[in-house]
Amino acid sequence: MSTSYYDLDQETLFIVSQSFKALSDPTRIRILHLLANKECSVGEIVEQLELGQSTVSHQLRFLKNLRLVKSRRAGTTIYYSPQDEHVLEILEKTIEHATHD
Questions:
Q1: DSSP alpha helices (H): ranges in 38-84?
Q2: Which residue in 17, 69, 81, 94 could disulfide with 63, CB within 3.0 to 4.6 Å?
Q3: Chain center to CA of 33
Q4: What is the mean pLDDT of residues 8-24?
Q5: What SS3 class is residue 9?
Q6: How far is CA 48 from the centre of its chain?
Q7: Residue 70: left if φ>0, alpha if ψ -120 to 50, beta else—which one?
Q8: Phi (first) and psi of residue 96, to 5 degrees
Q9: Strands 40-41 and 77-82
Q10: Mean of the per-residue pLDDT values for the chain?
Q11: What is the pLDDT of residue 84?
């Protein structure tokens, strides 16, 4: 049984709106799309997407706070990957929709 939209509590509404906010920024979309394909360090993201390190770090912090990405440390390097496949599914479906003729 699905939850009625009228029954959504304030916390759920906030999380949903923040998830859409995360997907409303082109830089965050690019980062999430890259991470959907492989785990990356900040340096790899900077290199692959040709972005500044401070920009990538800021966006990763935003995505991590929303629990959309997670990190793991290997020595002195931190690697990032998707936390939750659900948002990535929405992202991929939206990309498919945008590129569909």
A1: 42-49, 53-65
A2: 69
A3: 8
A4: 87
A5: coil
A6: 16
A7: beta
A8: -60, -45
A9: antiparallel
A10: 90
A11: 81
What is the rounded CA–CA span in Å between residue 87 and residue 19?
8
Token pair for residue 53?
């390190």
CA distance 25 to 59: 10
Domains of the chain are 11-99 (1.10.10.10)
Element containing residue 73 per DSSP (H, E): strand 69-74
List the alpha helices (DSSP H) in the chain: 10-22, 26-37, 42-49, 53-65, 85-99
Strand order in the sheet with 40-41: 40-41, 77-82, 69-74
Q: Which residue has the tokens 């770090």?
A: 57
**Residue 12 to residues 15, 18, 23, Cα–Cα distance (Å):** 5, 10, 17
CA 73 to chain centre: 19
Tokens of 100: 């569909």
In angstroms, rounded to a whole number, what is the distance separating the alpha carbons of residues 93 and 20?
Answer: 14
- Residue 51: Cβ-neighbour burial (10 angstroms; 0-12, 13-18, 19+): middle
